[in-house]
Amino acid sequence: MSKIFVDACFGKETPYTPVWMMRQAGRYLPEYMEVRKRAGNFLNLCHAPDMAAEVTIQPLDIVGVDAAILFSDILVVPNEMGMKLDFIKGEGPVFDKPIASEEDLNELIGGEEAASKLTYVYDTIKLLRKQLDERGDDKALIGFTGAPWTLATYMIEGQGTKTYNICKKMMYSNPDLLHKILHKVTEVVKLYMEKQIQAGIDVVQIFDSWAAAIEPSRYNEFSWSYMVEIADYLKAKYPHIPIIMFPKGIPAFLDQVYGNFDVFGVDWSTPMALAKEKLGDRYVLQGNMEPCRLYSKEQTTACVEAIQNIMGGKRHIFNLGHGILPDVPVENAQHFVRECQRVSKKA
Ligand SMILES: Cc1c2[nH]c(c1CCC(=O)O)Cc1[nH]c(c(CCC(=O)O)c1C)Cc1[nH]c(c(CCC(=O)O)c1C)Cc1[nH]c(c(C)c1CCC(=O)O)C2
């Protein structure tokens, strides 16, 4: 029996439009905070399959979403390529030795050797597969990766950035080195996602959170083409696994979107009607409520109804247009999920 969420990714008719939320396993849930405290810190939590599986399942039971997203982080990949990673309170992720030269890049572990080190991720997936199958409740499991560009921004800047000046200096003054970094990351990510599929995920999502940092005329060269390369690799071997592409904040690139994938994740800055006009015939669309609407139940309902009016319950998956924030009341997240299911339920 196929899952409603997987059917929806392939554009099939479903009894209602499925819904999940980016960053749905996280700090807005007191139950998550309790497990994180037990783990000691965030990276320990990512490395402990039993606790990572526990927080992956939490939003299914507490908020009622239709899919679970593997609990991990996009930055475990560069971490296992050999870059020391810390999550510093108030600052976010920090790599202690960013890549500044070809020598730095050559020191990093690549390909199969790097992908094989992420055993704790595959172990979490295997555990989740077993737990979800035992529940027998039709919830899908989404695996994920960061897009090579988004991963490279952290690997080159060493941390989050507002200006991206270090990686953009490389883009315009040493593009060959940037391409070498992107290529090496892409080779690891292909195998990483393949191993996630073999461990039991139902769906792949590729997060390009920092897509908007690239000017539209260069976006394909430095990011999208690498995401398409990963999708091509996976589709050739695993055509039954849907692929969701989520490039955040690129409305100017919509006319140029191409590739062998199933779902286009629409971020909250892109009008859903525009995405539907440009891409709705070729791809299922996911999204796209502005996450801050969750602070108001009325504004949430109004937005869910507006999105439903545009999409009409066809070729659509409900989601936020980016991640849920830590101070959103749980009952408002529950309200969002209930409203998506209410407005889209077919008689
Ligand atoms: C850019 C990015 C990262 N990580 C991720 C992205 C892409 C998605 C997006 O655009 O939001 C992806 C991610 N990170 C996390 C998940 C888990 C699954 C889920 O979505 O519920 C997923 C899918 C857990 C996490 N990843 C992180 C947390 C917070 C850690 C904690 O304090 O518990 C969680 C739950 C840490 C993290 N990880 C990252 C940052 C910038 C931070 C610090 C900012 C913050 O604290 O929110 C990098």
From TrEMBL:
GO molecular function, one term: uroporphyrinogen decarboxylase activity
Catalytic activity: uroporphyrinogen III + 4 H(+) = coproporphyrinogen III + 4 CO2
Matching InterPro entries: UROD/MetE-like_sf (IPR038071), Uroporphyrinogen_deCO2ase_HemE (IPR006361), Uroporphyrinogen_deCOase (IPR000257)
Residue ranges of domain Uroporphyrinogen decarboxylase (URO-D) in the record: 18-27, 142-158
Compartments, record wording: Cytoplasm
Biological-process GO terms, alphabetical: protoporphyrinogen IX biosynthetic process from glutamate
Predominant location: cytoplasm
Keyword Lyase in record: yes
EC number: 4.1.1.37
One Pfam assignment: URO-D
Gene Ontology terms: cellular component: cytosol
Pathway annotation from the record: Porphyrin-containing compound metabolism; protoporphyrin-IX biosynthesis; coproporphyrinogen-III from 5-aminolevulinate: step 4/4
Enzyme class: lyase
Residues reported in the UniProt entry to bind substrate: R23, Q24, A25, G26, R27, D73, Y154, S209, H322
Keywords: Cytoplasm, Decarboxylase, Lyase, Porphyrin biosynthesis
Sites marked Transition state stabilizer: D73
Subunit structure: Homodimer.
Role summary: Catalyzes the decarboxylation of four acetate groups of uroporphyrinogen-III to yield coproporphyrinogen-III.
Family: Belongs to the uroporphyrinogen decarboxylase family.
PANTHER family named among the record's database cross-references: METHYLTETRAHYDROFOLATE:HOMOCYSTEINE METHYLTRANSFERASE RELATED, UROPORPHYRINOGEN DECARBOXYLASE
Name of the featured protein: Uroporphyrinogen decarboxylase
Name of the gene: hemE
